[in-house]
Design brief:
Elements: E1 3-9, H1 16-29, E2 34-40, H2 47-57, E3 61-65, H3 72-82, E4 87-90, H4 102-110, E5 116-120, H5 128-146, E6 158-161, H6 162-165, H7 178-184, E7 190-194, H8 210-228, H9 233-263, H10 275-303
Length: 316
């Protein structure tokens, strides 16, 4: 099979017939074999009944239904598990992603050798104040932290080599950073394709402004885990050692200063009367605690079942 199209959705009943029709036309016009897998993330508007009707009319359409709303990452994870196509395409169900882009994305994976291709909605049809500006700030931050030069990392329209989706784990709200997850798994040939963006035709957006704040926090978590996940002592140990040394040096300096002044018969302050002394003690205590946190983290990392899990590309 050439393509698996994964469509995570939540209350998008009105758009599903047109979406499936356009995906089918785009793939058939280019001679591509395909499957459409729609993951209903706990919809309450009858989306599942619509998926059932569509699947009865076309065996290439399938679906998965959650008992409740788990989020887009969970929907993509289940879709990735079931994808059989050589190339996996993900797209939103709101018809803002154009299905006519699928053949172009497929060719970039198969012919140009990319591991992952992300869509770039250069000319967005969203509100400039609530969507465009925050999106630009978010993507600028993501580019700087991840080192991946994508203009629109959170674009729902993406293409993957099948091997990529089988070797990454999408959880929480990490669907925003799948390119970064792929990069950390060793799939470094990541490209970008400018795609057409359409106005929402039915319903309303399910995302609010809080996704940008949550997205930034998720990015920090992902960066920390990818950098220090298997070596926590490198972060906590160095931080703790630094703070301990700073506190220790200040404490010694205060005591020596007091002894020198006392020996020369000069006026001096008692060590315990100086606020700096207590700040130094605090630094020493925090340093020890950070060091111990790193040690505990190292013990947990060494006992983790995936500590020696590596993605092997080839073997002879």
């Amino acid at each position: 099979m050439d393509i698996s199209v994964i469509v995570p959705l939540f209350n998008e009943r009105e758009s599903l017939p047109e979406l499936c029709s356009r995906i089918t036309k785009a793939c058939e016009a280019n001679g591509l074999s395909f499957e459409i897998l729609m993951v209903d993330d706990g919809s309450t508007d009858g989306s599942w009944e619509c998926i059932r009707e569509l699947s009865q009319g076309d065996s290439r359409i399938g679906g998965v239904r959650f008992r409740r709303n788990y989020g887009k990452s969970a929907a993509l994870y289940c879709g990735f598990e079931r994808a059989k196509g050589d190339v996996v395409i993900t797209m939103d169900a709101d018809l803002q992603d154009s299905p006519e882009e699928i053949p172009g994305l497929y060719r970039m994976i198969k012919d140009d050798g990319y591991d992952l291709v992300s869509g770039w909605k250069r000319h967005r049809k969203d509100n400039a104040l609530t969507k465009n500006l925050p999106s630009k700030l978010y993507n600028a931050t993501a580019r700087r932290i991840t080192g991946i030069k994508l203009h629109d990392m959170n674009c729902g329209l993406k293409a993957y080599r099948n091997e990529v989706v089988k070797n990454i784990e999408v959880y929480g709200e990490m669907h925003r950073y799948i390119p970064y997850l792929a990069k950390n798994a060793g799939f470094t040939k990541i490209g970008e394709k400018e795609v057409h963006h359409e106005k929402r035709k039915y319903g309303k957006s399910k995302f609010g402004m809080d996704r940008f704040i949550n997205g930034f926090l998720d990015l920090q978590s992902l960066w920390f885990l990818s950098t220090f996940g298997k070596k926590p002592m490198h972060f906590f140990g160095y931080s703790g050692l630094f703070m301990f040394l700073v506190g220790f040096v200040i404490t010694v300096w205060i005591i020596i200063q007091k002894l020198v002044l006392q020996a020369h018969g000069l006026k001096f302050r008692a060590v315990t009367d100086q606020p700096l002394f207590y700040l130094a003690l605090l630094a020493v205590v925090l340093g020890v605690m950070l060091f111990l946190a790193g040690l505990i983290g190292e013990m947990i990392a060494r006992s983790a079942p995936e500590r020696n899990h590596y993605n092997i590309k080839e073997e002879i």
